[in-house]
Amino acid sequence: MHDPETVWDFATADRIKFGTGASEELGDELADRDIESILVVTDDQLRETGTVETALESVPERIDVSIFDGVEPDPGIAVYESAIATAGEHAPDAVVGIGGGSSLDVAKVTGALADSDREVLEYVAPPVGDGEAVPDSDVRVVGIPTTAGTGSESSPAAVVSLPDRELKVGISSRHLFPDLAIVDPLLTVTLPPAITASSGMDALTHAIEAYTTRRFDTKPAPDRAGDRPDYGGRTELTDMYAERAIELIAGSLQRAVNNGSDVEARRDMSLGTLLAGIAFTNAGLGATHAMAYPVAGENHTPHGVTVAVLLPEVIRYNSSTAVDRYARIGELLGEDLTGVDDRYVGERAAIAVESLATDIGIPSGLSELGVDSEDVPRLAEKTEEIQRLLVGNPRRFEREDLEDVLEAAR
Ligand SMILES: [Fe+2]
Hints:
By secondary structure, the chain is of the alpha/beta class. Helices cover 46% and strands 10% of the residues. Strand 4, helix 5 (101-113) and strand 5 (140-145) form a beta-alpha-beta unit. Helix 10 (303-318) packs antiparallel against helix 12 (342-359) and helix 11 runs parallel beside helix 12. The chain starts with 14 loop residues before the first strand and ends with a helix. Fe (ii) ion binds at residues 202, 205-206, 289, 303, 307.
């Protein structure tokens, strides 16, 4: 029997630079680290829109720049391997990821494994991979997000898709934290409304699930300090980040969708996303994310849309076990809950999420994403396997509870 946990730790990118125009300082940052060559990891569409050029404008000519623009949404092993092979050809001092979560994930792994002879799959967590320890490489990694959603710029993880198994797996290590995250809201003004909406709802879900995940001291203490799980449970520190994230996103997401050039809204979304990312990568997530992976894996729906559709029903299911948490969430979403009976608090918070999602054009149910009633038992079974997320959920789920919530979200 283990003693209860009494200690938490907290980690994020080594340095974070935030603000409109922050990307203009990339050149100085590279020069200060004596970097002579960089490999930019991005996708070809972002290159066509000129965003990559904008982000690289400050890089002085004496720094040798090579570009890998083969990142695709939900990148598979092959994308990771070819980015690493490109790094092998150029031997860069730093890898600079520019783009959404996929580009940043590939950049982080490319930097860490640039000198490794092993295959990427060996670093994936078991049972799919071997769970090899990610090396502490000398190659620096800079993450420059151009969406506001995933929080990859401040996280120690990367997601790898295995499409033939309809599965996503993760590589996780403290050596995957970027050395520098540069969050420049101006790089997000060209994001189309639909992507602003779905990535924004993903960030909101990160904040809400981080704020309601189980506390760190509900877990057993590890035998060794290094054995603490990545998702250690919520703490006073992660709560601060999550609360402010919910408030910022609730106040700006609709404006950012309606008018992409609203720089103040873009700034609040970028900051809210960053804070939500810091909160959940330390605290953990919950059942919304657990259910979203099988749903998105089978139906190829965007991650942000999938979590947005599931979140209100998970709130309804969870609310009785964490009323004070959902009351605070409701308030942060702009609801006046004075005098509202505890029994209705979760419902009000769920409705607040639903109306925000509806206002920004998110589908209203899983059936619109292609999920039929007959799919529900199989999706529930697959969700039950994602215990690393379910263990953080404030209320326990039996198989039939998962089925009920999935059916309610249809
Ligand atoms: Fe997410």
